[in-house]
## 1
Amino acid sequence: MTALKVAALLSGVYLSIVAPLSFAQDVSAKLMVCGACHGADGNSTMTGSPSLAGQPKIFLENNLIMIREGIREIPVMKGQLDGLSDPQIIALAKFYSSQTLKPEPGKRDDGLYERGQLLSKQALCGTCHLPNYVGREQMPRLAGQREDYLLHSMRQFTSNNAKGRDTIMAASLYGMNDDDLKAIAHYLSQAK
């Protein structure tokens, strides 16, 4: 490394210590970290990681704050939001809610899809998440979400392991078996 590169590196370190990052730089830096799992534009391609693009802003704000405060425990998120202010959380939520969801559903299984559609109607999922499942206010968008994540979330609700999340979901899914949950997850991941 040349002396000039070392000097530039050291001055960058010095400036980051002396002059804290601006609000916009902090949010941009956090978006880069979030993008590693949730995708740069909020469209996740990582198994088990939800897409955040197109989620309702209030839903994102609430969940980010609950994660930051330790109310909603997600082991891989532990510490990721520490030190972020409410305005920074709101900026992150605004960014992701304004992104377009670009679902990449797997191959459609017509039988599973139809069963999931019927079960979703019977469970009245559209009452809170809207008939087209795009979510609203504090209710998440389900349409086009990753199938693996939808199934994981519903399994958490049915096993009472969805800490920090709306308990009405456990009641909504009561009596459903794993095959039912798989059908619903398949249907919702395919919904647009």
## 2
Amino acid sequence: MHLLKDIPLAPYTTLKVGGAARFFVEVASEAEVLDALRYAREEGLGVFVLGGGSNLLVSDKGFDGLVIRIGMKGIAQQGHTLIAEAGEEWDAMVQLACERGLQGVECLAGIPGTVGGTPVQNVGAYGQEVSQTITEVRCIDRETLSPVNFANGECGFAYRRSRLNREDAGRYVVTRVSFRLTPGGAPLLAYADLQKAFLPGESPSLLEAAAMVRKIRAAKGMVLIPGDADTQSAGSFFTNPVVTREVYESIAARYETVPHWAAAGGVKMSAAWLLEASGFRKGFALGHAGLSTKHALAVTNRGGATAGEVMKLRDHLRAEVETRFGIRLEQEPVEL
């Protein structure tokens, strides 16, 4: 195990903010994960597991423990199932699936991060969620220091949720994920943005659909582009809230158009719309942190921002939405 000390964490995140890790190690196998966990236990250190850093807000004080960065690589195919190591880049796996004619993840193209992070928050976009294709999530149990495999039904998947970020948050280290895909299936064109991108009657391939998703995401600042401050973010900073039918109808009565979707337990509303309706336009800023000029839901580091500035902006946005609509927006990025 190659242990490093006092390693700045900002370069390992897409927001590019935050302090240093007291100890840092990159692992390339389950055996190395176990070595790192044993070391942390022996030394009495807290542990944080780092993937692609695309859904993470690191505080300015950093982390006074051991950060384990997941670096396992490799994708194997068994029939219609892709078995991907947790450190693989997510978008690369999507591209591979499309190249092999395997349908089920094409609408998730362009999402930054690694494979291991996808089941944790049940990553989703444009009508698809990873929970629809995941068959198994392999993990290391930090309490027993032994491997465990969770079938789909054992993961507790819900909107942006799983047992891995709820009741068992922090207990398991994801090392591998299996996805059962559909050979020869047509791409899912469920969302209006994607439907409008193709001509009526046009039948795009999986690769064409994935490329269009990336193009749409780029237009909204949701694809990482070096040097573009609008993409120096953690993606969607707030989840779309699910409210009761009564709450939605009381809001809809006051506005001509209120974007919404049916959801289990109520009505899902657009967090971006709630922000804009609260007076926060694209490009709004407090200090060096601001909203993307392309999408109101992306909190960005406009250059030189601190985590404190990001948090100050977050609190301001959340307070105004709650004051105006009585809805408390839930932060999507994990806070360290």
